[in-house]
Amino acid sequence: MSTNVSPLCGDPSIIECRQKTVLVELKDVSVSFEQGSQVLQGIDLTLCAGESVLLLGASGCGKSTLSQVIAGLLPRSIEATVTGEVNYAPAVLQSGGVGIVFQDPEAQFCMVEVQDEVAFGLENLQMPPAEMDPIIHTSLQQFGLQVDGSATTTSLSGGMKQKLALACAFAMQPSFYLLDEPTANLDPASTQLVFEQVEELIRQGQTVVIIEHKFDALLPFVERVVLLDSTGRLHRTGPTLQVIAQEWEWLLEQGIVLPEASGRTGGDSYTQADTLASAKSSAPVAALDHGELRYGAKLVWQELTFTVQSGEWIAVLGENGAGKSSLLHALAGLKKLTAGSVQLSGKPLKKLSRADVSKLIAFVFQNPEHQFIYERVIDEISNRMVGDRQPDPEDLQLLAEFGLQNSVELSPFALSQGQKRRLSVACMLREHHRLYLLDEPTFGQDARTQLAILEKLQQLHQTQAAILMTTHDMEIVEQYATRVLVLGQGGLLFDGLPDELLRDRGLLQAANLFAPRLTKERASLRRGEAFPWSKQP
Amino acid sequence: MEQAAIAQAKSLAAKLNPSYKLLITMIVLFALALVHHPLQAVLSVVPPIVLMLTIGGLSLITLLKRLLPFAVFFFFYVFFQAAYSTTNDATVYHFLWYHFSKTGVINGIVLAFRMLTSVTYGVLFVSTTDLTDLIVSLCQDLRVPPKFAYGILAGIRFMPMFKEEWHKLRAARQLRGRDAKWSVTRIVTYALPLLSQAIRTSERVAVAMEARGFTNGPRTYYRQIHRGMRDVLYGLVLLAANLVIIIAF
Q1: CB burial of residue A260 (10 Å; 0-12, 13-18, 19+)
Q2: Minimum Cα–Cα distance from A369: chain B residue
């Protein structure tokens, strides 16, 4: 198989590894699932104690699957056919030997209260109960979880759930940590906190395997990188900075990193003046008048008044829990306002039928799974049960544009995280709408998926459709948005141009937002400036 | 409501061993199947109400709020038993087209109060028992296999999420213009996706639990569930009270 790649020979990390304990060793490992799809092919990989590894690859290439093999979950807990040889150190296979943080923050807890959740792993290790309290306390502290131990896990936000998952893993002192896109659902501040924790773990000499799309901030301290290509083969493995610098072209080609200055090709032609001009000609696409939302006694936001004109690309920013998703839901009539009113195309939302709303508005949910209502990809995109009949060629074309042509017969739920997101966006683009509401459309996506989605949105933008999207990604805000709304402290903190926001340090800090500073690091990385050993083109 | 919950959590009944409390409650309910006299039936609802107001930490208002819906239902139950049960004895009272019989009234009262008693014991148990405590106690005191007990816990945890899933699914279908036309058919349309979503979620949770070292083997318990004299006392008092009701009246 992989003849031109010899990941074991000449790799400095492997030589180093000979002096350390080998935790997991994969020899010519291939994995296929029941649905007949081959995911991994001929993988040779060694994980040594004390090293940190970043797994990179295009969306759907089998990163999660590989991590599950490394963690010993596959085929033990997840059904699949594995060929080749996998050797584990005894410590890895012990209960709780691997501390895993999963993608889905909802479905990794089994207890009602936070303290029981952390204790659950310790109970499995048969630790005497008297020793548990201090460990639970330190674990929660370690990840900045300032909640009462008796708080329920369901009351936590997505970001706090991921922190809790980290705390649970930490409490068990596993032989290595496996983080499968741990920050996919976190705001920049929480992401930074998690990355700081990962750095701290690595600095303490813990073994860490991490899958992460926003990997820029990890590069300085993760020792080794493993590159998987889109067919599920190992492309290369080696010291992070060196490999990234040398393989930059390959990373671009695989869509793992984005070329510089990708967005805003036609965006600049849209100035505020254009938008205002078009505004006068027609009724606003959507308008919120003195909107207020409360959950019981808890105020989410109040006195929200703004209008959305066609041709606007609005980014909604704010901390986790600031009510960004709720705002989108309220505009689509999925959530009732406690006070105030919504108008769509000049008509009160209350007077519009469900069918009218679904014609006017397209909605992309934060979790793509919440949007799927069929059991096959082709049914999903066609919005009907296709059955054995010939599917619409236009639908197939749309799937192909989103790189889903090979998944037509699969269940939408069996797709990878990135594929699910692309499908959910594709479904919403099938018919034209006046207003597109997107809740974190680039959440947990690799660079290529992100670019594909943003390109599509840009096309929509040029057809004068209005786009309102929530995001945590300041790069997207800077490159694409024509207007920014910042929610926080129970109201609207900012409504204006992206550039103005990015200049306002005080506000950025108050709303827990960060200016996009990682781009520059990446750019210097690309030019190879930071790495004297990399070849200059 | 929140304050009521705190009062109940601190109450004496909440400190009882959940498994024993469950066992005692079940024994009492079986014993009460022997009740066949209206006076017995009425009296048998007294002990659980007294318990709720004393060691249960429930206020009279909370108690009424929780029991009133059932009481209304049981009133109608007595009414229909009395009005429609076919008995041999003569009608004692006429009202419009109804013919009330004595046997009917008595049967109705006995059955209605028996049910009310069961419900009251149920409310007493549920409002003074922490779910996690119960599950841990089942494993520790009654030797229920952890896989089974924790499975129940995970299942109950997902109950409220089911409602959430329903709303999400409805929102998704509405936005794509594919909602069921009538609310009755919605149940049929949603059943399969809800079920498959439940299976997917449970699979993920199971994998996560196994990944954290969960097996059916031995384990320790963070929560220490105590059992002692007060459990015995609770059992004895409750059994004695009910025996008096059954034998003496």
Answers
A1: exposed
A2: B197
- Write phi, then psi, for A511 (nearest 5 degrees): -95, 10
A229 burial type by CB count under 10 A (0-12 exposed, 13-18 middle, 19+ buried): buried
Q: Are residues B25 and B115 in the same domain?
A: yes
B177 in contact with A at a CB cutoff of 8 Å? yes
Q: What letter does residue A535 receive in the DSSP assignment?
A: P
Residue B222 resides in a domain: no
Q: What is the C-alpha to C-alpha distance for residues A416 and A413, in angstroms, rounded to an integer?
A: 8
Contacting residues of A for B212, CB less than 8 Å apart: 95-96, 100, 120-121, 124, 168, 172
Cα B65 to Cα B237: distance, rounded to the nearest angstrom: 27
- Say yes or no for a CB contact (<8 Å) between B160 and A154: yes
Instruction: Please list the residues that pair with A496 across neighbouring strands.
Output: A484
What range does the domain containing B12 cover? 6-137+227-248
Radius of gyration of chain B (CA): 23
Query: Per-residue confidence of chain B (249 residues) as pLDDT tens digits?
Result: 444 555 555 688 888 999 999 999 999 999 888 888 888 888 999 999 999 888 888 888 888 888 888 888 888 888 887 777 666 666 666 666 666 777 778 888 888 898 999 999 999 998 889 899 999 999 999 999 999 999 888 888 888 778 878 888 888 888 887 777 777 777 777 887 788 778 888 888 888 898 888 888 889 999 988 888 999 999 999 999 999 988 887
**Residue B150 maps to a domain:** yes
Residues B64, B96 share a domain: yes
Asked if the structure places residue B51 within a domain, the reply is yes
Q: How far does A403 lie from chain B, in Å, by closest CA?
A: 22
Statement to judge: residues B72 and B95 lie in one domain: yes
Q: Does residue B44 contact residue B114 with C-beta atoms inside 8 Å?
A: yes
- Is A210 within 8 Å of A52 (Cβ atoms)? yes
Q: Is B153 in Cβ contact with A112 (below 8 Å)?
A: yes
Per residue, the 3-state secondary structure of A356-379, as one string, reads HHHHHEEEECCCHHHHCCCCCHHH
- Which of B196, B204, B222 is the best mutation test for A, with the most CBs of A within 10 A? B222
User: Rounded to 10 degrees, what is the CA torsion of A496, A438, A407, B200?
Assistant: 130
**CA A384, A387, A390, A391 torsion-angle sign:** positive
Nearest-angstrom CA–CA distance, A353 and A347: 11
CA distance B197 to chain A (A): 9
Residues B67 and B130 in one domain: yes
Do B113 and B169 belong to one domain?
no
**Same domain, yes or no, for B40 and B92?**
yes
> Residue B201: inside a domain, yes or no?
yes
Helix (H) or strand (E) holding A57: strand A52-57
- B169/B237 same-domain check: no
Enumerate the residues of chain A whose CB falls inside 8 A of the CB of residue B196. Answer: 375, 413
Residues B125 and B12 in one domain: yes
Q: Are A427 and A380 in contact (CB under 8 A)?
A: yes
Query: What's the length of chain B?
Result: 249
The answer to whether B176 contacts chain A (CB < 8 Å) is yes
The verdict on whether omega for the bond into residue B160 sits within 30 degrees of 0, i.e. cis, is no
Contact state of A119 with B205 under an 8 Å Cβ cutoff: no
Q: Total domain count for chain B? A: 2
